[in-house]
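Researcher: Can you fold this with uracil in place?
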Amino acid sequence: MESAQDWHSAKALLEWYIELGAVDAIGDEPVDRYALEPTPPKPVKVSPDSPAPATPTKQPAAPQADYVALAKQAAAAAGDLEALRNAIAAFEGCELKRGARNTVIADGNPGARVMIIGEAPGRDEDIAGKPFVGRAGQLLDKMFAAIGLGRDAPLSKDAIYITNVMPWRPPNNRDPSADEIAMMAPFLERHVQLVAPDLLVLMGNTPCQTVLGRKGILRMRGNWDQGWGKPVMPMTHPAYLLRNPVAKREAWADLLSIRAKLRDLE
Ligand code: URA
């Protein structure tokens, strides 16, 4: 098909659609649905013998499933990490699942002393099926390597384990809603129980809201707290550090504090 657009603007437009979450091309020709004639309602034939139309009666609303309760049940029933993965993948309460390519659960060593909790997969993670693999993830790996920890480390003492509050990518990387967080929090809490790390690192506001019940990461970062029975260190998200490189100095202080805490807890 001939296009009025040049190659570069067509490519930029396509990337924008992908960024918005479009995954399929459904027709060769675009359809401007706003320009279509509205379809008139079908005429109803009325004969003199027809019974009078029934007065519409109000239908009782279909009962809504209590997905938070279902999530709590499913999470509590998961006896190990494999069962938890299956329970998350089978959970149908969260609309984000329908727009995601992959359910992104975790990466790293499940025996790690440090469990890192991010927000939600972005585009790269949605494609790869693993958390923190894009630019922010590469920075996260460098940050923890600087204190001798890595996701591929075979020994628990040198390892990190990484997950997110949400296992599915929100469209256009928007923040997860309070309802979405409430539905997935029971799975995350069970995840923390099963991994049983020595401490948690919360990357940004969404995991702070989920684990500590409050946000304000720029005030909270660097201060040890207690959540879900673990020492908790809130840190600014690596994506924030990419946009605000001067904040890396504070992040370095937080990493040193994590290293010191691991020594204290030995
Ligand atoms: N940001 C997150 O919070 N998690 C990811 O997995 C990737 C980017």
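Model: Folded with uracil in place. The chain has one domain: 67-264.
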